[in-house]
Structures are given as C-alpha cells and as structure tokens.
Design a protein that fits this description.
binds protoporphyrin IX containing FE, 14 helices, 4-stranded antiparallel beta sheet, 6-stranded mixed beta sheet, 425 residues, alpha+beta, Dimeric_a/b-barrel, DUF7405, Tat (Twin-arginine translocation) pathway signal sequence, TAT_signal
C-alpha cells in the first residue's frame, strides 16, 4: 500500500494529521534520509525564537516558504498559581532536548513557545505598561470567534513529517527519545495539551488534500498552489522583516507578539461562481485583474504582490469603476508605517483538521494593536458607503472566510522562553 512515491506522500499527510505511535513508526520506517542533528551549544542558537527565515526554504525569487508540516500545541500549566522553579527546569530541559535532537532548520525542526495574557495573570506583578498584549477579542462586527486563552502555544514546523511527529511524541511522553537523544523530562510533565492543531503549506499539498468540507467536489485547487484559495502569499516585499517585528526595548527585547486566528473556508462560490479574473480581482485588486498582472498561482510576480502605492490609494475609485475591492489592497492600507515599512509578518498555513478546510493564521508584529489595525482595514467596513461593496460581498475574500478562533501571545526571547515572569526576572 505504501510502496510508490505518491502513496508515501499520502501516508505522511495522514500521519501528521492523525499522529500517534503507529503513524510515527510507519513513517520512520519509510524515512530515507536521517534527520539532521541539533546542537549541544545553546549559544549557537539565535536569541529571537521567531527568527525562522534564515533556516527555511526560499523560492527562486527569494520569498520564504513556511515549513510544509506544522503543528500548534495549545497547552496549560497543570496547577493553579504561577509556575515554580521546578516547572521551569522541566520545560527548559524538554526544549533543550529538542535543540540537541534536531537541527534548527526546515529539515530538522523550527519551533517557538509563546505565552498568553491569561498566563501572565497567574502572577501578582503586571506586564510592562508599554507591552501591547491584550486579551483576544472579536475584530469585526460580523464575527463571533472563540478565544484561545490557554497558557502557552508551542508552534512547531518541519519539511519532514517524521521529524515533527517524533518531536511531538517525545514532548508528550509517548517515546523516550527524539532523534536518538533521550528526553529526560517531557513537556507534558508540566503542561497538558488542551488542543492539538495540524497544518501544511506549500505547492501540491492543498491540491492533494482538497477532499474536505469547504472545497467544492470539482477539485478546483490548482496543483501548484501552496494555499487552498489558489494563490501564493507572503511575497518578501509584502512581509515585515523579522527585525521589524522584534521588540527593541524592555524586559522582552528580542521577542515579538503573535496573534493566531483559525479561519474556516467555504470556497464553493469562490471557485464555482467566479472565474480566474474574478479571483485575482478579489484577492489582489481589480487593477491586477484588468491589467493581467497575475499568472496562475502568482509565481510570475517575483518577490512582490505588485501592490503599488497607487493601487492601494485608489481603492475607492477602483470600487466605483469595478464594483469591488481586493483583499491585499484593502489590508495594505494599514500595513505600512510612515516610512513605508511593512508592519506585520504573516505565517499562515492550511489545515484539514476535522475534515474541514481552514487556515491557521499566525501573524507577528511589535504589538497586537498593529494586527488589529490591519485586520480593521481588511474588514473594509468604511468602503461599504459605495453601494456595490457590501460588508461581505465584493469586499475582498470576506465572503469565503469565517473566523472561528483568536488568540494573542507573547513570544519571549530565548533566554526567557521557559515560563517567563511578567517583569522578565
Ligand atoms: C484564507 C485566508 C487568506 C488568504 C488565502 C490570504 C491570501 C493573501 C494573498 C494571496 C495576499 C497577496 C500576496 C501577499 O502579499 O502575500 C495577501 C495579502 C495580505 N493579507 Fe491575506 N489572506 C488571507 C487572510 C488574511 C487575514 C485574515 C489577514 C489579517 C489581517 C490578512 C492580511 C493580509 C495582509 C496584511 C496582506 C499584505 C498586504 C500588503 O501588501 O501590505 N490576510 N493575502
């Protein structure tokens, strides 16, 4: 059953989605290459947990490609009150084991651990006043999400499904070793997994996995698309740099803030009612469609989505002329600082958890309000003064996406990664 290359792929995708020891052992017996080993020297690792770009794959145009397999473990401390020194020692030991076991790269493992406002409420002290980390909230009049308020979020990724699964099993105490390194104290000795969410991104993967609720039966997702909606995203020029999203001052200097949404997709009308040009207009801008700027999934765009200041600023005129506005065009209105720098670093990836097409949407920025401003611009409520533009129709991609969950987190610098206090002491 698992002999040929395509059946091996089938197998790997099922394995990450399902997990479990039997999935892993079958996966491992198939692995052709050893997984690259990590390091015993923590000082060789970057202080910024979120600095992944250097060790991920870049396409020919220099755009960063997210890890093909990803895992979000939402975890809770297993007792009331603040964490103890013992808790801290156990967690640091588990993470150090990961660092020793896997090269910090897409072929080994990239990961970060982040903490919620609810976690910091366990302490008597408060977070610094200028740290912009509110509780998650609803960000549109038309959404009613559940809020992720677990203590922490461990986000892991790898090109290698077997590395990711093995790391998870070692962290959760289901196996004793990670890439032959002994896991002395698993993460689950101190943190209980409340929610396990899986995902993937990259050319070929959405097309292979499109047999789920939310995607029409006609199998419309293009083979080359890294995402279900048929286009690539995350062009280098339209992403904040890791430097830009890094906190510069205060106890958490070297860290960043992370918003994570989970968004259900219903793509029947996207693919069935609309043709390619309609999709380009609604994803990028009507001008992109009129001028034929996008071929296929958008590889021809190079390292920029092609949004110019003029395309962004003339959005109301385009709404009048074409009766609709584009998603990227709308969001970009709030996504530049005064010097023209991009403000948020998006790292979204797809999911078929529970057999439903959804998007996990992590975004990094210096403060959660930056994300909230960009999301407000994407809501485009201001544009509905034009009668052709309704809150969810002709308004970018809002007709097809439904926010189910939101959570806010602080990604501390590495030195504070194991149960930070609000003051960073
Ligand atoms: C299924 C959901 C989504 C898909 C498929 C999607 C896809 C895309 C694509 C193809 C682009 C243009 C290329 C690029 O610059 O990356 C883009 C741009 C962008 N999207 Fe999304 N997106 C989704 C949801 C969201 C959400 C929830 C936000 C939250 C605010 C968002 C914010 C942005 C921003 C800020 C840009 C860049 C605009 C700029 O140039 O500044 N997107 N998206």
């Amino acid at each position: 059953m698992f002999d040929g290359p395509s059946s091996r792929r089938e197998f790997m995708k099922a394995a990450v989605a399902v997990g479990g020891a039997s999935a892993l052992s079958a996966c491992m017996s198939r692995a052709e290459e050893p997984i690259p080993k990590g390091t015993d020297d923590p000082s060789s690792l970057p202080e910024r947990q979120h600095a992944w770009n250097d060790v991920l794959v870049h396409d020919d145009a220099g755009n960063v490609e997210g890890p093909r397999h990803q895992l979000l473990l939402y975890v809770n401390l297993d007792h009331d009150g603040p964490p103890t020194e013992d808790d801290r020692r156990v967690l640091e030991s588990a993470l150090t084991t990961l660092d020793r076991a896997y090269e910090r790269s897409h072929e080994g493992l990239v990961y970060s651990i982040a903490y919620s406002p609810a976690y910091f409420d366990r302490f008597d002290e408060s977070l610094p006043d200028d740290l912009d980390l509110p509780e998650p909230r609803s960000l549109a009049p038309f959404e009613d999400p559940e809020f992720d308020r677990q203590d922490a979020l461990l986000h892991l990724g790898s090109t290698r499904a077997d590395a990711l699964l093995e790391a998870e099993e070692a962290l959760t105490g289901d196996r004793d070793t990670a890439n032959t390194v002994t896991m002395e104290s698993p993460l689950t000795d101190v943190l209980a997994v409340d929610s396990r969410r899986t995902g993937f991104v990259g050319a070929g993967m959405p097309a292979e996995r499109q047999d789920v609720a939310g995607i029409p039966d006609s199998k419309p997702v293009p083979e080359q698309s890294p995402l279900f909606m048929g286009f690539k995203a995350g062009f280098a020029q339209n992403q904040a740099t890791e430097d830009y999203v890094t906190l510069q001052d205060g106890p958490f200097a070297g860290g960043t803030t992370k918003h994570v949404a989970n968004i259900r997709q219903r793509l029947d009308d996207w693919y069935v009612e609309q043709d390619f040009e309609d999709r380009v207009a609604e994803m990028f801008s009507p001008r992109h469609a009129a001028e034929g700027l996008v071929d296929g999934v958008g590889d021809n765009l190079g390292d920029s989505s092609g949004l110019t200041p003029d395309i962004i600023e003339s959005i109301e005129e385009q709404a009048k002329q074409y009766g609709r506005v584009g998603h990227a065009q709308k969001a970009a209105r709030a996504n530049r600082d005064e010097e023209g720098n991009v403000r948020v670093l998006r790292r979204h990836f797809e999911s078929t958890d529970d057999d439903v097409a959804s998007l996990h949407f992590p975004s990094l920025q210096t403060g959660i309000s930056v994300f909230e401003e960009v999301r407000e611009a994407m809501n485009g409520t201001d544009l509905t003064s034009n009668p052709a533009i309704r809150q969810r129709v002709n308004n970018g991609i809002l007709e097809y996406i439904f926010v189910r969950r939101r959570g806010n987190f602080l990604v501390p610098p590495r030195r504070l990664r194991s149960f930070p206090t609000p003051t960073g002491e």
